[in-house]
Design a protein that fits this description.
Jelly Rolls
């Protein structure tokens, strides 16, 4: 799918990312990647960091996010910026979907 101009949701595969969380890699190039994450209520995105800049857009639901030790509740329409190596994670308060944009792309999310 790398560099595919059109990526249809029905042609992508959801993979288990954590209990109650599925990840779907959408369009991407070497420099940029779009990933959809669906969360069940109570599911956890464990605290972690990575060498990518990431913007998260809340499509639906409600989440308690922690970024560098600061916690806030976010809902549909909210965005968060996580720069390189910043520790972050979340707990899903109401089932929902997060859309993550990474630069550069996450090689660890791609199947070979």
């Amino acid at each position: 799918m790398q560099n595919d101009r059109w990526v249809f949701h029905e042609d992508t595969q959801a993979d288990a990312a954590a209990p109650g969380v599925t990840r779907r890699v959408l369009a991407y190039s070497a420099d940029l990647m779009c990933v959809e994450n669906s969360f069940d209520t109570g599911a956890v995105g464990a605290l972690h960091s990575h060498p990518h800049t990431q913007i998260t857009y809340v499509v639906s639901g409600a989440f308690e996010f922690e970024i560098e030790g600061e916690k806030k509740i976010v809902r549909a329409g909210d965005t968060m910026l996580k720069t390189d190596a910043v520790e972050h994670g979340c707990v899903c308060l109401e089932a929902g979907v997060l859309l993550d944009i990474f630069t550069p792309m996450r090689k660890d999310f791609v199947r070979e």
